[in-house]
Amino acid sequence: MKIYLAGFKTIEKYWKESTKDIYLLSSFYEHKNEKCGNYVKQKNHILDSGAFTFMQNKNKTVDWDKYTEEYANFIKKYNIELFIEMDIDSIIGLKEVEKLRTKLENVTNKKCIPVWHKSRGKEYWLQMIKNYDYVAIGGIAINEIKQNEYKYFNWFLKTAKKENCKVHGLGFTKTKLLKKYRFDSVDSTTWNVGGKFGNVVILDRCGFPTKRYKKKYNRVKNVNDLNMYNFNQWIKFQKYAEKYL
Fold first, then answer.
1. Stated pTM of the model
2. How many Å apart are CA 236 and CA 230, to the nearest integer?
Protein backbone atom coordinates (compact mmCIF):
# COMPACT_ATOMS: atom_id res chain seq x y z
CA MET A 1 0.00 0.00 0.00
CA LYS A 2 1.20 3.49 -0.82
CA ILE A 3 0.46 6.17 1.74
CA TYR A 4 0.54 9.65 0.23
CA LEU A 5 1.26 12.46 2.65
CA ALA A 6 -0.85 15.54 2.00
CA GLY A 7 -0.28 19.02 3.37
CA PHE A 8 3.41 19.16 2.43
CA LYS A 9 3.09 22.93 1.93
CA THR A 10 3.13 23.19 5.73
CA ILE A 11 6.86 22.41 5.86
CA GLU A 12 7.97 22.75 2.23
CA LYS A 13 10.09 25.82 2.88
CA TYR A 14 11.85 24.07 5.79
CA TRP A 15 12.36 20.71 4.06
CA LYS A 16 15.92 20.38 2.76
CA GLU A 17 15.95 16.69 1.87
CA SER A 18 15.05 15.05 -1.43
CA THR A 19 11.40 14.12 -1.97
CA LYS A 20 12.04 11.56 -4.72
CA ASP A 21 11.33 8.61 -2.40
CA ILE A 22 8.37 10.20 -0.61
CA TYR A 23 4.77 9.71 -1.71
CA LEU A 24 3.11 13.12 -1.74
CA LEU A 25 -0.36 14.39 -2.59
CA SER A 26 -0.73 18.09 -3.23
CA SER A 27 -3.48 20.45 -4.31
CA PHE A 28 -3.58 22.50 -7.49
CA TYR A 29 -5.17 25.24 -5.39
CA GLU A 30 -1.83 25.47 -3.55
CA HIS A 31 0.08 25.78 -6.83
CA LYS A 32 -2.14 28.18 -8.78
CA ASN A 33 0.50 30.90 -8.46
CA GLU A 34 2.98 28.53 -10.15
CA LYS A 35 5.07 28.37 -6.98
CA CYS A 36 5.61 24.67 -6.61
CA GLY A 37 8.44 22.32 -5.86
CA ASN A 38 9.89 19.81 -8.31
CA TYR A 39 7.99 17.09 -6.46
CA VAL A 40 4.93 17.84 -8.59
CA LYS A 41 6.80 16.25 -11.51
CA GLN A 42 7.59 13.05 -9.62
CA LYS A 43 5.94 9.74 -10.44
CA ASN A 44 5.17 9.22 -6.75
CA HIS A 45 3.02 12.34 -6.60
CA ILE A 46 -0.75 12.71 -6.95
CA LEU A 47 -2.29 16.08 -7.77
CA ASP A 48 -5.73 16.96 -6.46
CA SER A 49 -7.84 19.73 -7.99
CA GLY A 50 -8.22 21.56 -4.67
CA ALA A 51 -11.99 21.32 -4.94
CA PHE A 52 -12.23 20.21 -1.30
CA THR A 53 -11.33 23.79 -0.35
CA PHE A 54 -14.41 25.05 -2.17
CA MET A 55 -16.62 22.41 -0.60
CA GLN A 56 -16.08 24.24 2.68
CA ASN A 57 -17.80 27.28 1.21
CA LYS A 58 -20.60 26.42 -1.20
CA ASN A 59 -21.50 30.11 -1.52
CA LYS A 60 -18.18 30.91 -3.15
CA THR A 61 -18.62 31.80 -6.83
CA VAL A 62 -16.25 29.90 -9.12
CA ASP A 63 -15.98 29.64 -12.88
CA TRP A 64 -15.48 25.88 -12.92
CA ASP A 65 -14.79 25.71 -16.65
CA LYS A 66 -11.99 28.22 -16.30
CA TYR A 67 -10.66 26.53 -13.16
CA THR A 68 -10.65 23.14 -14.90
CA GLU A 69 -8.82 24.59 -17.88
CA GLU A 70 -6.15 26.08 -15.59
CA TYR A 71 -5.89 22.77 -13.75
CA ALA A 72 -5.51 20.86 -17.02
CA ASN A 73 -2.86 23.26 -18.34
CA PHE A 74 -0.88 22.89 -15.11
CA ILE A 75 -1.00 19.10 -15.45
CA LYS A 76 0.12 19.34 -19.05
CA LYS A 77 2.92 21.81 -18.31
CA TYR A 78 4.45 19.67 -15.55
CA ASN A 79 3.65 16.34 -17.21
CA ILE A 80 1.81 15.07 -14.15
CA GLU A 81 0.77 11.44 -14.48
CA LEU A 82 -1.58 10.98 -11.54
CA PHE A 83 -4.29 13.57 -11.03
CA ILE A 84 -7.78 13.53 -9.57
CA GLU A 85 -10.87 14.72 -11.38
CA MET A 86 -12.86 17.80 -10.35
CA ASP A 87 -14.37 16.13 -7.30
CA ILE A 88 -17.34 18.47 -6.80
CA ASP A 89 -20.45 16.30 -7.21
CA SER A 90 -22.04 17.94 -4.18
CA ILE A 91 -21.58 21.42 -5.63
CA ILE A 92 -22.48 21.14 -9.32
CA GLY A 93 -23.86 17.61 -9.71
CA LEU A 94 -22.51 14.51 -11.43
CA LYS A 95 -23.46 15.47 -15.00
CA GLU A 96 -21.46 18.68 -14.80
CA VAL A 97 -18.56 16.85 -13.17
CA GLU A 98 -18.57 14.42 -16.09
CA LYS A 99 -18.39 17.34 -18.53
CA LEU A 100 -15.44 18.80 -16.65
CA ARG A 101 -13.81 15.34 -16.59
CA THR A 102 -14.09 15.13 -20.37
CA LYS A 103 -12.59 18.60 -20.72
CA LEU A 104 -9.77 17.75 -18.31
CA GLU A 105 -8.89 14.56 -20.19
CA ASN A 106 -9.14 16.18 -23.61
CA VAL A 107 -6.73 18.96 -22.68
CA THR A 108 -4.22 16.70 -20.91
CA ASN A 109 -4.70 13.75 -23.28
CA LYS A 110 -4.57 11.52 -20.18
CA LYS A 111 -7.04 9.70 -18.00
CA CYS A 112 -7.68 11.21 -14.59
CA ILE A 113 -8.51 9.41 -11.35
CA PRO A 114 -12.33 9.59 -11.07
CA VAL A 115 -13.84 9.74 -7.59
CA TRP A 116 -16.77 7.54 -6.59
CA HIS A 117 -19.32 8.86 -4.11
CA LYS A 118 -22.30 7.09 -2.55
CA SER A 119 -24.64 9.20 -4.65
CA ARG A 120 -23.18 7.64 -7.82
CA GLY A 121 -24.42 4.19 -6.91
CA LYS A 122 -23.22 0.62 -7.39
CA GLU A 123 -23.58 0.43 -11.17
CA TYR A 124 -21.55 3.58 -11.65
CA TRP A 125 -18.73 2.02 -9.64
CA LEU A 126 -18.76 -1.12 -11.78
CA GLN A 127 -18.56 1.03 -14.90
CA MET A 128 -15.76 3.18 -13.48
CA ILE A 129 -13.49 0.26 -12.72
CA LYS A 130 -13.95 -1.07 -16.25
CA ASN A 131 -13.11 2.25 -17.89
CA TYR A 132 -10.23 3.31 -15.63
CA ASP A 133 -7.14 1.63 -14.21
CA TYR A 134 -7.02 3.92 -11.14
CA VAL A 135 -10.07 5.21 -9.24
CA ALA A 136 -10.73 6.74 -5.84
CA ILE A 137 -13.41 6.49 -3.19
CA GLY A 138 -14.37 9.88 -1.79
CA GLY A 139 -16.47 11.11 1.11
CA ILE A 140 -14.46 9.32 3.79
CA ALA A 141 -12.78 12.38 5.31
CA ILE A 142 -16.02 14.37 5.45
CA ASN A 143 -17.95 11.45 6.98
CA GLU A 144 -20.18 11.00 3.94
CA ILE A 145 -19.25 7.36 4.31
CA LYS A 146 -19.90 6.42 7.93
CA GLN A 147 -17.57 4.11 9.82
CA ASN A 148 -20.28 1.46 10.07
CA GLU A 149 -20.24 1.40 6.24
CA TYR A 150 -16.52 0.70 5.97
CA LYS A 151 -17.37 -3.01 5.86
CA TYR A 152 -18.38 -2.52 2.23
CA PHE A 153 -14.90 -1.39 1.23
CA ASN A 154 -13.79 -4.97 0.67
CA TRP A 155 -16.49 -5.43 -1.97
CA PHE A 156 -15.25 -2.33 -3.79
CA LEU A 157 -11.65 -3.52 -3.57
CA LYS A 158 -12.52 -7.05 -4.68
CA THR A 159 -14.52 -5.95 -7.72
CA ALA A 160 -11.81 -3.47 -8.73
CA LYS A 161 -9.12 -6.12 -8.47
CA LYS A 162 -11.05 -8.33 -10.90
CA GLU A 163 -10.79 -5.49 -13.42
CA ASN A 164 -7.09 -4.85 -12.64
CA CYS A 165 -8.07 -1.43 -11.35
CA LYS A 166 -6.29 0.27 -8.44
CA VAL A 167 -8.28 2.00 -5.69
CA HIS A 168 -7.25 5.06 -3.69
CA GLY A 169 -8.96 5.85 -0.39
CA LEU A 170 -9.21 9.64 -0.24
CA GLY A 171 -8.55 10.85 3.29
CA PHE A 172 -8.57 7.34 4.77
CA THR A 173 -6.29 7.92 7.75
CA LYS A 174 -7.47 5.37 10.28
CA THR A 175 -4.20 3.46 10.47
CA LYS A 176 -5.61 0.63 12.56
CA LEU A 177 -7.95 -0.28 9.70
CA LEU A 178 -5.35 -0.32 6.92
CA LYS A 179 -4.67 -4.02 7.48
CA LYS A 180 -8.37 -4.76 7.17
CA TYR A 181 -9.05 -2.68 4.06
CA ARG A 182 -6.23 -3.12 1.60
CA PHE A 183 -6.46 -0.07 -0.62
CA ASP A 184 -3.73 0.28 -3.21
CA SER A 185 -3.13 3.76 -1.86
CA VAL A 186 -4.52 6.26 0.63
CA ASP A 187 -3.62 9.81 1.63
CA SER A 188 -3.35 11.50 4.99
CA THR A 189 -2.66 14.85 6.66
CA THR A 190 -2.55 13.21 10.09
CA TRP A 191 1.23 13.63 10.24
CA ASN A 192 0.81 17.37 10.88
CA VAL A 193 -1.35 16.89 13.96
CA GLY A 194 1.71 17.79 16.05
CA GLY A 195 1.77 21.34 14.79
CA LYS A 196 -1.92 21.73 15.63
CA PHE A 197 -2.07 20.06 19.02
CA GLY A 198 1.54 19.83 20.18
CA ASN A 199 1.69 16.03 19.79
CA VAL A 200 4.78 13.97 19.10
CA VAL A 201 4.15 11.02 16.77
CA ILE A 202 5.80 7.74 17.71
CA LEU A 203 5.73 4.39 15.95
CA ASP A 204 4.52 1.32 17.80
CA ARG A 205 6.23 -2.07 17.62
CA CYS A 206 4.38 -2.90 14.41
CA GLY A 207 5.55 0.28 12.72
CA PHE A 208 2.22 2.13 12.97
CA PRO A 209 2.08 5.81 14.05
CA THR A 210 -0.77 5.22 16.45
CA LYS A 211 0.60 6.61 19.70
CA ARG A 212 1.22 10.24 20.52
CA TYR A 213 2.53 12.01 23.60
CA LYS A 214 0.69 15.25 24.20
CA LYS A 215 2.59 18.38 25.08
CA LYS A 216 1.30 21.82 25.86
CA TYR A 217 2.09 24.47 23.28
CA ASN A 218 4.34 26.33 25.69
CA ARG A 219 6.54 23.23 25.90
CA VAL A 220 6.97 23.00 22.13
CA LYS A 221 9.91 25.26 21.32
CA ASN A 222 9.51 25.12 17.55
CA VAL A 223 6.34 23.89 15.86
CA ASN A 224 8.16 23.60 12.51
CA ASP A 225 10.74 21.27 14.06
CA LEU A 226 7.93 19.21 15.53
CA ASN A 227 6.22 18.99 12.13
CA MET A 228 9.48 17.93 10.52
CA TYR A 229 10.00 15.20 13.11
CA ASN A 230 6.45 13.89 12.73
CA PHE A 231 6.72 14.03 8.94
CA ASN A 232 9.83 11.86 9.13
CA GLN A 233 7.99 9.36 11.31
CA TRP A 234 5.30 9.07 8.67
CA ILE A 235 7.91 8.60 5.96
CA LYS A 236 9.07 5.57 7.93
CA PHE A 237 5.48 4.39 8.03
CA GLN A 238 5.24 4.84 4.26
CA LYS A 239 8.12 2.44 3.80
CA TYR A 240 6.57 -0.06 6.20
CA ALA A 241 3.19 0.13 4.45
CA GLU A 242 4.67 -0.30 1.00
CA LYS A 243 6.42 -3.45 2.14
CA TYR A 244 3.91 -5.06 4.46
CA LEU A 245 0.40 -3.75 3.71
1. 0.93
2. 10
